[in-house]
Amino acid sequence: MTGANKGIGREVAAGLAALGLTVLVGARDRCRAGEAAAGSVAAGGDAYPPSKAALNALTVQYAKALRADGIPVNAAAPGACATDFTKDLGSAYSITRTAAQGAAVVIRLATLEGDGPTGGFFDDEGPVRW
Ligand SMILES: NC(=O)c1ccc[n+]([C@@H]2O[C@H](COP(=O)([O-])OP(=O)(O)OC[C@H]3O[C@@H](n4cnc5c(N)ncnc54)[C@H](OP(=O)(O)O)[C@@H]3O)[C@@H](O)[C@H]2O)c1
Q1: Cys-Cys crosslink for 89: which of 24, 54, 93, 128, Cβ 3.0 to 4.6 Å?
Q2: What is the per-residue pLDDT across 68-121, written as a single tens digit (0 to 9) for each?
Q3: In the chain, where are the structural domains located?
């Protein structure tokens, strides 16, 4: 689990561990956290949509590559969750969920059986249009 030191990633790791799974967690060097945060502020919001478009494309690529091995690969929409990522967004954004609530869809997708959907994008309610 990347980004497992806080926010949604931490809740996903905790949720998978609570199911009895062994979870490999990854987190960046603490010393680099402040530096990285400063960098993302400088980049502004313009980099966010392309990064998610790239992630969607990767999801489809990996789903195709791993389909024959029975490994489903999907993207998750956690909804607007209260984390460090959203704490400075201001009142224009409605943050309605906890990180644990956002993690639930990721945990569900991560524990799909081999014949589950693959190459899709899901939230709590089901499939989301790309
Ligand atoms: N919160 C929401 O409402 C929401 C909604 C939709 C999608 N998402 C997505 O969910 C994911 C997690 O968000 P969050 O709200 O849980 O944010 P968060 O609490 O700020 O956590 C982000 C995590 O990602 C790590 N990270 C950030 N940049 C990284 C990099 N360049 N390399 C490696 N690790 C990096 C952070 O590590 P450090 O502690 O070292 O910075 C931290 O562990 C993000 O991809 C976000 O776009 C969030």
Answers
A1: 93
A2: 999 999 999 999 999 999 999 988 889 999 999 999 999 999 999 868 899 999
A3: 7-127
User: What's the rounded Cα separation, in Å, for the pair 50 and 73?
Assistant: 20
Nearest protein Cα to ligand 1, atom 10: 8
Query: Per 3-state DSSP, what percentage of the chain is helix, strand, and coil (rounded to 5)?
Result: 50, 5, 45
Sole residue written with tokens 């490999």: 24
Cα 95 to averaged position of ligand 1 atoms, centre (Å): 15
Q: Across-strand partners of 126?
A: 123
Choose one of 51, 85, 95 to mutate for the ligand 1 pocket test, by most ligand atoms within 8 angstroms of C-beta.
Answer: 85
Return the CA Rg of the chain: 16
